[in-house]
Prior knowledge:
- The protein has helices at residues 3-17, 23-47, 107-117, 164-169, 248-255, 261-265, 285-293, 407-414, 418-423, and strands at residues 122-129, 138-144, 149-158, 182-187, 193-200, 210-217, 222-229, 300-307, 310-316, 321-329, 347-348, 354-361, 370-377, 383-389.
- The protein is of the alpha+beta class.
- The chain has a seven-stranded antiparallel sheet with strand order 1-2-3-7-6-5-4. A seven-stranded antiparallel sheet has the order 8-9-10-14-13-12-11, with helices on both faces.
- β4 (182-187) and β5 form a beta hairpin.
- The longest helix is centred in the N-terminal third of the chain and has 25 residues, at 23-47.
Amino acid sequence: MPFEDELGEALRRTGDGFTAEGRGLADAGERRGRRMVARRRAALAGGSALTLALIGTAGAYVNGLLGPGGGGGGGNVASSQEPPALGPLVRGSSRNTNRVGTGAVSAEQLTGVLKQLLPQGTLSDVEARGTGHEIGPAVTAVFDDGEGKSRIGFTLNRIDPKGEMAADMLKCPSKATTKHDSCTSEKLADGSQLFLYKGYVFPDHRANVKSWRAIVVTPQGFIVDASEENAATEKDSPPTRPTPPLSLAQLQALVTSPLWHPALNDLPAAGQEGARQAPRQGVKAVTILEELLRTDGIPIVSRDESHADLGYLVLDDGKGKSLVSLEIQVDNAEEPGVWADQFKDAETLPDGAKVLTRKGDGDKDVPGMLRWSAEVLRPNGTRLILSAVNGETEGSAVTRKEPVLGVERLKELATSPKWASEYGQ
C-alpha cells in the first residue's frame, strides 16, 4: 500500500477511535500537524507525484497533493460555481464522505480530460477515480511523448479557500528544510492562488528523479493539483529523461483548464475551517535558540522560521553543516495535559519539567542520517522539541558523521530558564 493510502487509513482508524473525551488529543494533534506542515509539505511536495494531502480525519491532517502537468489551454477553474475537497490517491479507501460527488463524471471521463490536456503521446498504467469515489477524483498514469516515460497525475478537491490548510499548501518550503530548484506562489488575475514547484523525489537528489508540481486554489475553493516526474514510477525506476515532459507553464495551463469544471462542480461543498489560533506575540523561538547558542561559538550559516514557534538553524563547526530544528507546542487550554502520557518515563527536573532524550536514525531514505533530540514538557503543559541531524536538511545527504549538537547539549538548551520567560513555567 502506498504511503498516502497507509496514511489515510491510519488517520481514519485513529479518527474512528476518538471520543468526546479524546477531543483534546485530536485538537492537539491538529495543532501539531499545522506546525509540522511547513516541514512535511516540503518533503511531500518535493517527494511524490502520488502523495495526496489534507486528510481531515478527527481534525488531523498532513499536507501535500498529487497531480500532473498539461499542455492545454486557457480558461480558469475560478469561473466555476462551486469549490473542491481533498483526498488521497487512486488506491486505498476512506470512510470520509466529504469528497464524494454524485458520480456524474466517471474515472474514464477524467482520464479522457487528462489526455486532452496533455501534449501528443500515450498513456499507460492508468489508475483513476471518478467523482463518485469515496476518496475523491484522481488519475495517475505513465505518459510517453516519445522522449521517455514519465509518471503523471492529478487530483481534484475542494477546501475552505481562506483556511489555514489552503495557506499551508500554497506556501513554498524553505531551503533550510528541503532543497529544491524553484518555487513560486502567486495570486492570479481572477483571484486564484497558484503554486508552482520544481523539486526532487529524493531530497538528497540521488538518482536525480525530479518532481514538478502545480496547484491552483480558486476563490470558490476548488483545488486542482497536478504533478509529474522524469521517471516511470515514483521511486523504483531510474530517470528516463533529463526533466519531466511538461514545463511549468504547461502544468499551469493544465490546472487552470475549464475542462475540470464539470467534475469540480459535482463535488460537495467544503466546510468552513474554524477560526485560526491567534499567533503568539513575543520573541520568536528560533531567536531565543540563537541567543542560547552564542556561547557554543558555532557559526550559524542560515536561519528560517515558519512561524513564532517553529524554526530552523543550520550550523557549521567546520566539520560539515548540520540542521537544528525547534518546535514548541502550547498546551490545549480547554483540556490541558494532552502530552502527559508521552512523558510517563521521562526524567523529572527540580522545577517539575520532564525531559526525554533520544538518539536514532533520521530519514530512512538517507543512508547514514542520524537524528538526536531532546523533548521537554514544562509544568504548564508546553512541549518543546529540539533536534539535530547530521545533514543540511532532514532529507538531504549527510554532511558529517554526527549531528553538530550532542544529546546532552540539546538537553541543556531545551531546559534553559529562558524558555520559561517567554512561554511560562
